[in-house]
C-alpha cells in the first residue's frame, strides 16, 4: 500500500512493501527526483539494507556453527512492512521478525523506517530494536536512487557528485562476485567533484570509508537544481549506477559493508558489523535536501 505526505515544497510517497520511499517530487515545477522503480532499469526506489549491506561470500554466512543464506542487501527490501504511525509530517513502517526471517537471520528484532518531511528536506531514519534474549548483529544501510540526468534533455556528463570538502580518498574495490578486496585504490586527490561519464562505474560501485565530508550533492553543470544527502551518521558511502544505462545514480549511506572476499569467520566477527545489546535500540538517520531553482 502507498502512503503520501506533502508540504508547500515537496510531496513524497512511501510503500509498505519494503517500507521504502517511492517518490520525492518538487512542487515548484513537478520535478521527480527519486527513480521510478522501472524494472527494466532497477525495480527498487530507495530500499533499506538489513541485516547485511552488499553480499556475503557465496550468499552464506555463519553464526554459532550454523549456516544461513541471504541475498544481496539482506531481507528487508522484499518484505511487507506494517504502517506503524502516520502524522502530519511523517510516516513510519515496521518490520518484526517472523518464522520466515528467523530461517535466514536467527535474531528477533524490530526494524522501523521513518520518513519525516520538513520544508525542502526528507529525513530518513532507521531504528533497529533488539527483542531477543542475546545481543544481535547486523549491518544497516540505504540505497536511494535518483534520476540522473534529472531531465531527458541533459547528458550524463552534465551531472556529477560534489562533496562538502576537498577529499583525498581511496575506494574499496569489489571483486567479480561483489565482495570486497583487501586493497585500497586511490581515487580522489584533493578534489571535491566527480563528474560522470560512461566509465565512472565500470568496476561497479565507488565505496568510500570515513570521508572528511558529511554531505554530497548530486549536481548539474546546466541547471541550478541539486539535491544534497547528509550522511554524517554513516561511516561508509557507496555511489553506484547500473551497467544497463538506466537513468539514475545511487547515493548510499552505509553502516557496514559486503564481506571481504577472504572472510570465512562467524558473522559476529565480521569487520564493521554492529552489535546491539538485549532490549536496546539503535537509530541511524540521513537527510535528502532538494534545492529547486529559486530556493
What does this structure look like?
The strands form 5 sheets. A 9-stranded antiparallel beta sheet has the order 7-8-9-10-22-18-17-14-15, with no helix packed on it. Strands 4, 12, 13, 16, 19 and 20 form a 6-stranded antiparallel beta sheet that branches. The chain is globular and about 55 Å long. The chain has one helix at residues 99-104; strands at 2-6, 10-15, 21-26, 48-49, 60-63, 66-69, 82-86, 90-96, 109-118, 121-130, 136-138, 140-142, 145-147, 159-171, 185-195, 206-209, 215-220, 226-230, 236-240, 248-255, 274-276, 281-291. It contains 1 helix and 22 strands. A hairpin with a 2-residue loop joins strand 9 and strand 10. With 295 residues, it is an all-beta fold. The longest helix is centred in the middle third of the chain and has 6 residues, at 99-104. The protein starts with a strand and ends with a strand. The mean pLDDT is 95. 38% of the residues are buried.
Task: Please specify the SSE layout and strand pairing.
Blueprint: E1 2-6, E2 10-15, E3 21-26, E4 48-49, E5 60-63, E6 66-69, E7 82-86, E8 90-96, H1 99-104, E9 109-118, E10 121-130, E11 136-138, E12 140-142, E13 145-147, E14 159-171, E15 185-195, E16 206-209, E17 215-220, E18 226-230, E19 236-240, E20 248-255, E21 274-276, E22 281-291
Antiparallel strand pairs: 1-2, 2-3, 4-12, 5-6, 7-8, 8-9, 9-10, 10-22, 11-21, 12-20, 13-20, 14-15, 14-17, 16-19, 17-18, 18-22, 19-20
